[in-house]
Amino acid sequence: MDEKRETEIIREVLAGNPGAFEELVRRYQGPVYSLMLRSLGNADDAADLAQEAFARAYTRLETFKFGKRFFPWLYSVSMNVLRDRVRAMGRDFHVYMETDALPAQAENAVDEREAVETRLDGEKAFEVVLRLAPKYREALILRFRYDFTMREIARTLGVSVSGAKMRVGRGLDMVREEFGRNE
Fold first, then answer.
1. Residues 130 and 178 sit within 8 Å (Cβ to Cβ)
2. What is the mean pLDDT of residues 73-80?
3. DSSP code at position 49
4. Most confidently modeled of 21-30, 91-100, 144-153, 172-181?
5. What is the rounded CA–CA span in Å between residue 36 and residue 102?
6. What average pLDDT does the structure give for the chain?
7. Structural contact between residues 137 and 95, judged by C-beta atoms closer than 8 angstroms
């Protein structure tokens, strides 16, 4: 869905057509549910929390800034819902990457051996990312899984743009360091 269509839908909802929001839910329910599932580890809880995230996004839709992408805003709202729930549960906040976030080049490699090696390298990197502190893991997921800009990462995580760059850079450095140690 393009930015123009999302803007039209949001304008429709704000003009009194709540049914239009369903198109945004259908488009983004997968990523929001995945965020919740990676963090909670329970499908039922993840579904409930994803629904709560969409409900909160709907009630706060008037705070959305037109001219911006909708998904980073929705992801930020979802992260806040998740943080609230995790805090209420008395647990640390963690976000895990999906296994389908591994490099696509492994699937397209001509040489089967190269494809296997690339896949194994991707799995090793994935395991390293899972062990990172949540602030670095979140930044890497947003940048490389969801292709957020640094400005969108900053807004989503509530840090400055330079803070977002620092988190992505340090996270990558940690992955490279750990990856190099295991070779």
1. no
2. 92
3. H
4. 21-30
5. 19
6. 81
7. yes
Six-digit token string for 38: 């990676």
Q: Measure the CA–CA gap between 105 and 93, rounded to whole angstroms.
A: 31
SS (H, E, C) 115-141: HHHHHHHHHHHHHHHHHCCHHHHHHHH
CATH class of the domain whose range is 100-181: mainly alpha
pLDDT of residue 112: 53
Tokens of 171: 């996270």
* Residue 108 confidence class, pLDDT cut points 50, 70, 90: very low
User: The dihedral of CA 70, 22, 7, 27: what is its sign?
Assistant: positive
- Strands of 17-173 (E only): list them: none
Q: What's the length of the chain?
A: 183
Q: Fold identical between 3-89 and 100-181? A: no
Highest mean pLDDT among 60-64, 81-85, 116-120: 60-64
> What pLDDT is attached to residue 177?
87
What's the CA gap between 61 and 57, in Å, rounded?
Answer: 6
Q: Which fold has domain 3-89?
A: Rna Polymerase Sigma Factor; Chain: A (1.10.1740)
